């Protein structure tokens, strides 16, 4: 029977999706606004945006796949080292776990009892979690992360593409900037929730980064108009 994903695994896939959408919005917005600074030809702007969307989709998917695979390989090596450490000196590893709990403010008797029970239940999971900070049963799938990015990047790219292509020429750049700023505020807020970070700072940082990107690319494009 196929094992269900844990909450941590689902959150990591959501993270890849949110970041993929965010990058799709920001990257393609920068491209189309930059081209719009050089030309008013809607066809040229659309083609450049589509090319950016295609390149970004492949880049994001492969980048996420490689990144998660690298992380997974490092975690596998940590598990291998921890197995050897348990085989070599079980008591020392148990003492390490106890000390971790004592350092967190738990009384020594309670820390010793908790360590004993958890080590009896699964010594490897317990020591890996306390020494390296991850759960060996919660590996992130590089395929799932790659696919999430591959879907979310072009999805995010649609907004700046549609805005810059279909709004009237005299307001298309401004309308795209506003639409992108709103979308980046949403993805920034979502990323903050997933990362348990400050919502306000995340939104401001994301929107400011997007506005600066579009401003710079627009004026660079305008130089070649």
From TrEMBL:
Compartmental location: Endomembrane system
Main localization category: membrane
Keywords: Membrane, Transmembrane, Transmembrane helix
Keyword Iron-sulfur found: no
Membrane-protein topology: Multi-pass membrane protein
Membrane-crossing segments per the record: 21-39, 45-67, 143-167, 173-194, 206-224
Claim: Cytoplasm is one of the keywords in the record: no
Protein name (Swiss-Prot/TrEMBL): VIT family protein
Taxonomic source organism: Lactiplantibacillus daoliensis
Lineage: Bacteria, Bacillati, Bacillota, Bacilli, Lactobacillales
């Amino acid at each position: 029977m196929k094992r269900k994903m844990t909450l941590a695994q689902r959150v990591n896939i959501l993270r890849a999706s949110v970041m993929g959408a965010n990058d799709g919005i920001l990257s393609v917005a920068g491209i189309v606004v930059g081209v719009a600074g050089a030309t008013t030809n809607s066809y040229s702007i659309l083609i450049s945006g589509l090319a950016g969307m295609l390149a970004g989709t492949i880049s994001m998917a492969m980048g996420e796949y490689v990144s998660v695979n690298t992380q997974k390989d490092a975690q596998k090596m940590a598990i291998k080292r921890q197995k050897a450490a348990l085989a070599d000196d079980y008591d020392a590893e148990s003492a390490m776990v106890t000390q971790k709990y004592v350092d967190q403010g738990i009384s020594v008797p309670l820390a010793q009892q908790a360590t004993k029970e958890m080590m009896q239940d699964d010594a490897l999971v317990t020591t890996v979690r306390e020494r390296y900070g991850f759960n060996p049963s919660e590996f992130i799938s590089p395929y799932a992360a790659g696919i999430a990015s591959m879907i979310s990047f072009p999805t995010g790219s649609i907004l700046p593409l549609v805005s810059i292509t279909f709004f009237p020429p005299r307001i298309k750049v401004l309308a795209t900037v506003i639409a992108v700023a709103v979308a980046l505020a949403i993805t920034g807020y979502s990323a903050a929730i997933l990362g348990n970070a400050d919502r306000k700072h995340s939104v401001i940082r994301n929107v400011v980064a997007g506005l600066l990107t579009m401003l710079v690319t627009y004026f660079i494009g305008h130089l070649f108009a």
